[in-house]
């Protein structure tokens, strides 16, 4: 049944590099919950579930970022998850931005990361562009001095009340840690699948430059 992962989906042995079971199950659960609470969180959980499901099914890298922008300044934190290697790493970021809406704004973003190969790859200096219609928007970021460096494309959900807004920002992402996926994540998947047991999941650690959200 689980030939694609040598009959061991919980240990995440996936030699074909095509599917991450626990992440896929988690993503579907987030989608279901997100639909129910969309009026409360603006769709943030739903979008996170969609990205998680796709990233896990294709063993790609995703990023979740939360930031606060005010008077041309921006600060935040993010986590980068690599489903192909079962690793994650975290970053703090700070920078400046210019845009049509400079009011204090909280922004949540989730999306996909490219050119991410190892922990720390999402650290460094990035330029980001963001366009929003009300609270929903799209953003992308990357290092203009390193075309082979990490980059990200995200969906953003913010507290902005502007009908239409756009911004450009410059951020520095500083790695704060990273490791293989911990046991609790595997335990969740295992409980969903068979109702009991926990087992640590091996994974690599990776780092990602940055995904920023600006409203």
Task: List its salient traits.
alpha+beta, disordered C terminus, single chain, disordered N terminus, 215 residues, eight-stranded antiparallel β-barrel, globular
Estimate the strand proportion: 35-45%
* Separation of the first and last Cα atoms: 46 Å
Q: Could you say which structural class the secondary elements and strand pairing correspond to?
A: alpha+beta
**Helix count, per DSSP?**
3
Instruction: Please identify the oligomeric state.
Output: single chain
Question: What does this entry show, briefly?
Answer:
With 215 residues, the chain is α+β, with helices and mostly antiparallel strands. It contains three helices and eight strands.
Task: Walk me through this protein's architecture.
With 215 residues, the protein is α+β, with helices and mostly antiparallel strands. It has one domain (3-194). Helix content is 22%, strand content 40%. The chain is built from 3 helices and 8 strands, in the order ααββββββββα. The protein has helices at residues 21-41, 44-58, 183-194; strands spanning 61-70, 73-82, 87-99, 105-114, 124-133, 136-142, 151-158, 164-180. An 8-stranded antiparallel barrel has the order 1-2-3-8-5-6-7-4. A hairpin with a 2-residue loop joins strand 5 (124-133) and strand 6. Helix 1 runs antiparallel to helix 2 (44-58) and helix 1 crosses helix 3 (183-194). The protein is globular and about 40 Å long. It starts with 20 loop residues before the first helix and ends in a 21-residue tail after the last helix.
């Amino acid at each position: 049944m689980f030939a694609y992962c040598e009959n061991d989906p919980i240990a995440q042995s996936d030699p074909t590099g095509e599917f991450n079971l626990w992440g896929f199950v988690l993503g579907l659960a987030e989608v279901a919950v997100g639909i129910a609470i969309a009026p409360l969180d603006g769709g943030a959980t739903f979008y996170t579930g969609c990205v998680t499901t796709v990233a896990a099914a294709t063993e790609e890298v995703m990023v979740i970022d939360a930031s606060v922008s005010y008077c041309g300044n921006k600060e935040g934190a993010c986590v980068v998850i690599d489903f192909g290697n079962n690793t994650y790493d975290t970053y703090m970021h700070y920078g400046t931005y210019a845009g049509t809406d400079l009011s204090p704004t909280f922004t949540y973003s989730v999306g996909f990361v490219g050119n991410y190969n190892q922990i720390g790859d999402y650290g460094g200096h990035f330029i980001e562009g963001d366009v929003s219609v009300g609270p929903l928007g799209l953003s992308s970021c990357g290092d203009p001095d390193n075309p082979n460096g990490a980059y990200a494309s995200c969906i953003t959900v913010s507290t902005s009340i502007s009908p239409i807004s756009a911004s450009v920002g410059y951020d520095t992402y500083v790695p704060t840690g990273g490791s293989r996926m911990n046991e609790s994540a595997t335990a969740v998947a295992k409980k969903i699948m068979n109702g009991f047991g926990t087992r640590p999941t091996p994974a690599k650690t990776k780092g990602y430059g940055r995904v920023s959200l600006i409203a």
